[in-house]
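INFO worker-7 received task bundle
INFO bundle size: 2
INFO processing item 0
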Amino acid sequence: MSLDFYLQYIDEDTFETSEIYSRNITHNLTGMWNKAGIYDSLYNSHRMRPKEIIGLLRSGLAHMEDNPAEYRLLEPENGWGSYENALEFLRDVIAICSRYPNATIGISK
């Protein structure tokens, strides 16, 4: 099981959507997301704007980068996901959210 995080533009007149970004990550990293305080920003931001969550994501990333040993302890025993995977995913999401702050977030879990 996994989380699909994507950004899209929704035409307000026709309600047609165009996807501009999509990324998938394992649910096995939810312990890290919780510890970093960004679980809700990632999992419960459907239909929100990136500008609404970007500050929390940056703060969570900073905490993860400043405390790698604490987060490595949360790596799943089954090997599906790692601290490095979590950082890469989060950095990528932050970059795209910064680039498209007014897009619409889509979540599939």
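INFO item 0 finished
INFO processing item 1
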Amino acid sequence: MSEEFDRYDAFVKRIEEKYPAMYANPYGGICVGEGWWPIIETLSQAIQSNIDWRNKRAAQHPDLGYKSVKQVTVAQIKEKFGGLRFYYDGGDEYIAGMVSMAEYLAEVTCEECGKPGKQRRGGWIKTLCDEHEEKRQQAYKERFKNVQP
């Protein structure tokens, strides 16, 4: 279990160091499985690249109608009802589209391993591949094997 926490801590530290403006304010953290980490990292990179590009163009060419974009600050990233929730302030409609796309991608990606998955019911709604759903079902059966209906 410690190895899992070490990987999580390393991921969060890497994200916060790569995108300090986005993750500068105290926020609710990143509470999703490892399979969604690449989605979050790619989304963070795309958001920051867009902000940097748009703000550079706005400064260089204000006469052409380029508008600056307010820096995105993350409030919380979590799983809810089997889907990714990326709560933030700032940005614009283009960034909102990026966030929507990332949230959709997570709905078809196993939260545990990143392979193709689908939303599964049974207690908590989780987005899992067949392998991780089978493991979840086995763990559920083991936990409740002595419970009488």
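INFO item 1 finished
INFO post-check item 1: Strands lie at 30-31, 73-80, 83-89, 118-120, 126-128.
INFO post-check item 1: Residues 37-60 form the longest helix (24 residues).
INFO worker-7 idle
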